[in-house]
Amino acid sequence: MNVPANLKYTKDHEWCKIEGNVATIGITDFAQGELGDIVYVEIETEGDDLEREAIFGTVEAVKTVSDLFMPLSGKVIEVNGDLESAPESVNQNPYEGGWMIKIEMSNPDEANELLSADDYKAIIG
Amino acid sequence: MEATALKDIILKDKHIALGAKMVPFAGFTMPLQYTGLTDEHLNVRNNVGVFDVSHMGEFMVSGEGALDLIQRITSNDAAVLTPGKVQYSCFPNYDGGIVDDLLVYMLAKDNYMLVVNGANIDKDWEWVVRHNSNNVSIENISDRISLLAVQGPNAQKMLQPLTNMSLDMTYYTVQQGTFAGVEDVIISSTGYTGAGGFEVYFHNKDAEKIWDAIQEAGKAVDMKMAGLACRDTLRLEMGFCLYGNDINDTTSPIEAGLGWITKFTKDFVNVDYLKKQKEEGVARKLVGFELIERGIPRQHYQIVDAEGNVIGEVTSGTQSPSLNKAIGMGYVATPFAKVDSDIYILIRDKKVKANVVKMPFYKG
Question: Which chain B residue has its CA at the smallest distance from A60's CA?
């Protein structure tokens, strides 16, 4: 299972890459494997200010649908438009081409509460 | 919460060794997928895949009165069967619903096999026993039988080398004989995928031998194992009903579009009620629909009209791997059941436009 050491994680199987005040967010390799073939990523929250834990979008796999939760509070400043035509990127490349949103953090201290790669590995076993 | 013990299919360890993702289904630990749903799905449509569906139940009904019992409890007319023929049917209940859907195999004169859904084995067995007023010989052999479904256009090419029986079989026929060196194997040209192929029934004691032969024969045609996940998308593309989703104890065969297996030429459980439904019409009908706007329908999503009034409910839905379209089935009020009717699926509080279409969705 691929869990890059330079990223932070949540128990909801999302990853965050933090650069300055901006966090890039996606779902983990484990999450994409559990969901199976992803066919549609619906994110209509661009420009919204959202609290941590709020739903920022939905990911539809052939068999199931799953909500996407904000790992950190902030404003959604960018959505990965490539997923519109290539949702399978989330399966093939969850940490790179499969990223979902970028946010401007409104409370950067929350980042300290995210899981390290080792903590997350312990959760997924 | 009380934990319910899951039963094991006999070949469970073989699936795990192949890397299958195993999940609880119908009271068994079953292979859900191996390489991935879409890959397995397309391989069945275009080549050949093998499903372990040993959770299915098998009841033998034999001797004098066998046909009489089957006629009284099933909706289709089993009297038209001849030895070697298979028929799709259902057990209607007394409340206008369906106990289960099933296949009726006529193996020989006075010798039938009923194949029922794994999740319903106990319920169905009680139902058959309860109606066996003429003391016909019946036996529930579900725990002793395994079942592999070999599905896809190359199924015949793959399996023919394993048997002297000609597998050039008409759809919905059955024969019994030696297969992979094992005697007493039942093979039928049936399945739940619409891709063609066979279902192979054998005793658990022979499972390893049959498994090895099928794996070996599969190599020549690039067979891939296929899990329950793609079994569901394959059957949905064909518009085949899934018990527990599209039909259940409260849906009648007439509402479900199963009038074609409901024959009023004979007497059976709840025949008068169903006949009345057929003559007077029903208030809701099971339809197939395709989404016109983006989204994927899921079981229990509401179906609404243009004004937002609830007119029905989705019973099955998915993104079709063969068609790359979102498709589904659901019950709608009869005025909306006509092909080309505009309906809307309520997805996360949004009305998503859909169109009622004729099934099957996948036309080959």
Answer: B296
Q: Which residues contact B132 (CB under 8 A, 6 or more apart)?
A: B69, B138
Give, in order, the Cα–Cα distances in Å from B315 to each of B240, B288, B312, B334: 12, 10, 10, 16
DSSP lists the bridge partners of residue B137 as B62
Distance CA B148, CA B209 (A): 13
- Name every residue whose Cβ is closer than 8 Å to that of residue A50 and which is 6 or more positions away in sequence: A56, A70, A73, A74, A75, A76, A103
Pairing label, strands A49-50, B145-151: unpaired
> Do the chains contact at B295 and A58, CB–CB below 8 Å?
no
Other C-beta atoms within 10 Å of B165: how many?
A: 16
Preferred mutation among A38, A40, A63 to probe B, highest tally of B CBs within 10 A: A63
- Give the pLDDT confidence of B28-40 residue by residue, as tens digits: 999 999 999 999 9
At residue B79, what is the residue type?
A
In this prediction the ipTM stands at 0.81
Residue B33: list chain A partners with CB under 8 A. 36
Label residue A96 exposed, middle or buried (CB < 10 Å: 0-12, 13-18, 19+): exposed
The 10 Å Cβ neighbour count of residue B269 is 17
The structure tokens 């005040």 sit at A21
Q: Vertex B92, ends B88 and B94: CA angle to 5°?
A: 175
CB atoms A37 and B298 under 8 Å: no
**Dihedral of the CA atoms A19, A24, A27, A28 (nearest 10)?**
-20
If interface means Cβ-Cβ distance under 8 Å, which residues of chain B face chain A?
33, 36-38, 229, 232-233, 294-296, 298, 318-319, 321, 348
Residues 6+ apart with CB under 8 A from B115: B56, B57, B58, B102, B103, B105
| Residue A81 token pair | 């438009």
Burial class (CB in 10 A: 0-12, 13-18, 19+), A12: middle
Give how far B324 is from chain A: nearest CA, Å.
Answer: 9
* pLDDT value of residue A63: 85
Q: Residues of A with CB below 8 A from B233's CB?
A: 62-63
Q: Tens digit of pLDDT for each residue in B118-147?
A: 999 999 999 999 999 999 999 999 999 999
Cross-chain CB nearest to B36 (options A36, A40, A65):
A36
- Indicate the residue of A42, A60, A63 with minimum beta-carbon distance to B37: A63
Test B348 with A58 for CB contact under 8 angstroms: yes
Q: pLDDT digit string (tens) for A80-106?
A: 999 999 999 999 999 999 999 999 999
